[in-house]
Specification:
Radius of gyration of chain B: 27 Å
Strand order of the largest sheet of chain A: 6-7-8-3-9-10
CATH superfamily of chain B: MetI-like
CATH class of chain B: Mainly Alpha
CATH topology of chain A: Rossmann fold
CATH architecture of chain B: Orthogonal Bundle
CATH class of chain A: Alpha Beta
CATH topology of chain B: MetI-like fold
Oligomer: heterodimer
Shape of chain A: globular
Number of helices of chain A: 10
Largest interface: A-B, 31 and 21 residues
Number of domains of chain A: 1
Strand content of chain A: 15-25%
Structural class of chain B: mainly alpha
CATH architecture of chain A: 3-Layer(aba) Sandwich
CATH superfamily of chain A: P-loop containing nucleotide triphosphate hydrolases
Radius of gyration of chain A: 19 Å
Number of strands of chain A: 10
Shape of chain B: extended
Strand content of chain B: under 5%
Structural class of chain A: alpha/beta
Number of helices of chain B: 11
Helix content of chain B: over 70%
Helix content of chain A: 25-40%
Largest sheet of chain A: 6 strands, mixed
Order of helices and strands of chain B: HHHHHHHHHHH
Distance between the termini of chain A: 35 Å
């Protein structure tokens, strides 16, 4: 459903963030994108919804070429791509409910959104999502009153209320403690399977990625150097992606974590 | 991994550490310091003070200060009331109009949300408004529209635009861009993006600046009367011309009182909108 074709991004500074990336993701697949800082992971997902304009190459979502859309059509397609951010990216002075409902902005007119009179179905859906992530009682709180994990749950609701076909997830757990990180990852993966969503999850915690996804793509200096299952990620492969380091611990830890999680 | 160059470390251990100076060349540092001192001495020396004149003026100054002990609110009560009402109306009207016009110009003057041509036009408007001092604008407008509060109202509106648009634009430019990016990623239109992604971030500052500008406009309105642009300044000027220091003191006390009330209100409002 999502296809990247020779995607290139060169910044004004001359930095080549992406060097001809080809990637295809079938419907409903959750994919982890790993790689060191500066490998181009953030640029890659921002090029998909064109928060960053790619330099060349094409992006297709269900056969529609996103890279050639003009602003109105691009807006309509953006509704089908929910985005979740590293630092949650909530608007702090708005309430939780406003933040969630902002996911519907692409569907409602200016005055309805300005007056905060969203259609009842949107409001109902917002309450259902907040209930699903356990934050129903927080609806009228301001976003800056929430903890990190709670904020990320609101961020997830905002992405899901768009009724997307694809989730673009940028380092969802980088600002969270280990336990909350797993809860958030599990929540994202569960919601994707409930709703049949495809997702690209940028993540630099390899062990965490291996716990939750079926497919891992490794990016290194703007090029894909690995594409396989979590089990294919050998120490040699990790060295290829990240550079020389002792990777045994990263790989072993996965099993322990898995069991502990199953109990919890 | 650590201790790659032990000899370099050995050389540093035991040495004092000082913050690197802003200006590296030592002679240049001394030249700048001595030059500044010499300039100050020369500058003070160049001011001519006629001490005999100061001595004579002391009496008048004392009479003026003494008038604050017995301000006369009564004799010119009608003039003071009319001047005050005019000043307050000028302030309110100019602030409302100025702030309303400032918001779109401020949006246009923020490089991170406006396209380059819009940005240049809006920055140009701000530059013109800021380059012309209020008094000069008032003199021009009095020449065009004649004496009276209309000139004052227009002057203050014009000055408000330069002040508020510039500071609003700077606030927008320094906002956190990630939440705004998140709102854009939902497929929002431009107006919705501003309303949800930008406005909440800059609103407290916009309110604070607006109140501050109302405060400035009121104080300016007292000055503008001196050049004939209406308001309490005209009354104040007349009082000075007639050597009615007690009436002048009364007017100044009222101005101080109103400014203090505005200051208090701005504190209360800003605390609530954080």
């Amino acid at each position: 459903m999502l296809k990247l074709d020779k995607l290139v991004k060169t910044y004004h500074t001359g930095d080549q963030a992406l060097k001809s990336v080809d990637l295809e993701i079938p419907k409903g697949q959750v994919l982890a994108l790993i790689g060191p800082s500066g490998a181009g992971k953030s640029t890659l997902i921002r090029c998909i919804n064109r928060l960053v304009e790619p330099t060349s190459g094409q992006v297709y979502l269900d056969g529609i070429e996103l890279t050639r859309l003009r602003s109105g059509a691009l807006r309509r397609e953006r509704r089908r791509m929910g985005m979740i951010f590293q630092e949650y990216a909530l608007v702090e002075r708005l309430t939780v409910m406003e933040n969630v409902l902002s996911g519907r902005l692409g569907y409602v007119g200016f005055w309805r959104s300005f007056l905060r009179r969203f259609p009842q179905s949107d409001v109902d859906e917002a309450f259902r999502l907040l209930d699903r992530v356990g934050l129903l009682h927080m609806a009228d709180k301001r976003a800056d009153e929430l903890s990190g994990g709670q904020r990320q749950r609101v961020g997830i609701c905002r992405a899901l209320i768009q009724d997307p076909a694809l989730l673009l997830v940028d380092e969802p757990t980088a600002s969270l403690d280990p336990k909350t990180s797993r809860q958030i990852m599990r929540l994202i993966v569960e919601l994707c399977s409930e709703r049949g969503l495809a997702a690209i999850i940028n993540i630099h915690d390899v062990a965490l990625a291996k716990m939750f996804v079926q497919r891992v793509v490794g990016l290194e200096t703007g090029a894909i150097v690995f594409d396989g299952t979590p089990d294919d990620l050998t120490p040699e492969m990790l060295t290829r992606i990240y550079g020389e380091e002792d990777w045994e611990a990263t790989i072993e830890k996965v099993d322990d974590d898995g069991q502990e999680e199953a109990v919890a | 991994m650590t201790g790659t160059s032990v000899s370099e470390l050995d050389m540093l251990i035991g040495n004092r550490w000082k913050k690197p100076p802003l200006i590296k060349r030592q002679w240049l540092r001394w030249v700048l310091v001595l030059g500044a001192l010499a300039y100050m001495v020369a500058a003070i020396g160049s001011v001519e003070v006629n001490w005999a004149r100061v001595y004579q003026g002391l009496d008048r100054g004392a009479a003026f200060v003494a008038a604050f002990a017995s301000p006369d609110f009564v004799t010119r009560a009608t003039d003071i009331r009319e001047g005050m009402i005019e000043s307050i109306l000028m302030t309110i009207a100019a602030s409302v109009v100025g702030i309303t016009i400032s918001i779109p110009i401020g949006l246009g003057a923020a490089r991170n949300i406006a396209p380059l041509p819009v940005y240049l036009v809006c920055r140009g408007i701000i530059a013109v408004s800021r380059a012309l001092q209020e008094i000069i604008v008032a003199i021009i407008l009095v020449a065009i529209f004649g004496f009276g509060p209309l000139a004052g109202f227009l002057t203050l509106s014009f000055a408000t635009i330069g002040f508020l648009s510039k500071l609003l634009a700077e606030e927008i430019e320094s906002m956190d861009k990630v939440p705004a990016e998140a709102v854009k990623a939902t497929g929002s239109r431009w107006g919705q993006w501003i309303n949800y992604g930008v406005q909440p971030q800059v609103m407290p500052r916009l309110i604070g600046l607006s109140i501050y500008r109302i405060d400035i406009n009121f104080r300016e309105s007292a000055i503008l009367g001196l050049v004939g642009a209406g308001g309490i300044g005209a009354t104040l000027n007349t009082a000075f011309d007639r050597y009615e220091y007690d009436t002048a003191a009364a007017i100044l006390l009222i101005i101080i009182g109103i400014v203090m009330v505005l200051e208090y209100l701005s504190g209360v409002i800003r605390a609530r909108v954080q």
